[in-house]
Amino acid sequence: MTDLPRRRRGRPPVDQRVVSRAQILDHALRAFATHGYEAMSVRALSLDLGGSPHLVRHYYGSKQALWEASVDRVLDRVRQALQPLSEHAQSAPISREVARDVLEQTIRIAVETPDLVRIALDEGRVGGPRLDHLFAKGFDPVDKTLTMIVRALRGDDAAVTPDEQQSLFFIGLVGAAAPFFASALSERFAGGEPMSNDAKEHHIRLVVDMILHQWEHAASSD
Questions:
Q1: Which of 3-17, 74-88, 142-156, 199-213 has the highest mean pLDDT?
Q2: Which CATH architecture has domain 72-221?
Q3: 140/94 Cα distance (integer angstroms)
Q4: What number of CA atoms fall less than 13 Å from residue 196's CA on the CB side?
Q5: pLDDT for 49-61, tens place per residue?
Q6: Burial of 113 per CB tally in 10 Å (0-12, 13-18, 19+)
Q7: Residues 6 or more apart in contact with residue 129 via CB below 8 angstroms
Q8: Taking 50 as the threshold, does the pLDDT of residue 1 lie above it?
Q9: Contact at 8 Å (CB) between 73 and 21?
């Protein structure tokens, strides 16, 4: 089965080449991250994809619908990564191994899709309905999952404070993705060379180790 978008009713656009839904959403996510919501041009995106000026609007109707589809595609991956931890927590205590696995998966998504984090920072600066959407669809579940992990590592039922929640979120996701959306700065540290796949994996493990060590250390010193 082909991965083509479902066509809306009406006269189809005249396209120079066939474009899949995944291609449209990947390019849209990058465009929103690069230009911001207001400055991002749906017409320019359609032309960049090799289609008619009306290609993207034909499939997604509005800029808002395109924005939601592009970010939801990544947020769905985030929720899928978190699901095993929620299921595990219902039947058994959260072990360090399970916590590490879920943290690694979640941070890997942030590292692989830094455009979403960049969009979140832009929307987090101004606030509004799009930030509400990001938080409800993805960041709130991440926040709840990180809270579950911290409480498990501490070995108590004490509440995780708002300051702790905020720090975990920004260190675990925003901080981990920063070298990849601030690539020019990152390349200064890497000698002008982009991070290899092995370097990315090392970076992910390092961030996870730092988070786990911090909360295990905090628990042992109480």
A1: 199-213
A2: Orthogonal Bundle (1.10)
A3: 19
A4: 3
A5: 988 888 999 999 9
A6: buried
A7: none
A8: no
A9: no
> Domain extents for the chain?
1-61, 72-221
φ, ψ at 69 (rounded to 5°) = -65, -40
Query: pLDDT tens digit string along 62-112?
Result: 999 999 999 999 999 888 887 777 677 667 777 778 888 888 888 888 898
Under a CB-based contact definition with an 8 Å cutoff, are residues 173 and 117 in contact? yes
CA 160 to chain centroid = 23
**Selection from 27-41, 96-110, 205-219 with the highest mean pLDDT:** 27-41
Residue 4, both tokens = 């083509």
Q: What is the 3-state secondary structure (H, E, C) of 121-139?
A: HHHHHHCCHHHHHHHHHHH
Enumerate helices (H) and strands (E) in the chain, giving the number of each. Answer: 12, 0
Q: What gap in Å lies between CA 182 and CA 18, rounded to an integer? A: 32
Q: Are 149 and 96 in contact (CB under 8 A)?
A: no
Unique residue bearing structure tokens 């000698």 = 191
- Which two tokens mark 162? 């708002």
Distance, in Å, from the CA atom of 208 to the CA atom of 142, rounded to the nearest integer, reads 15
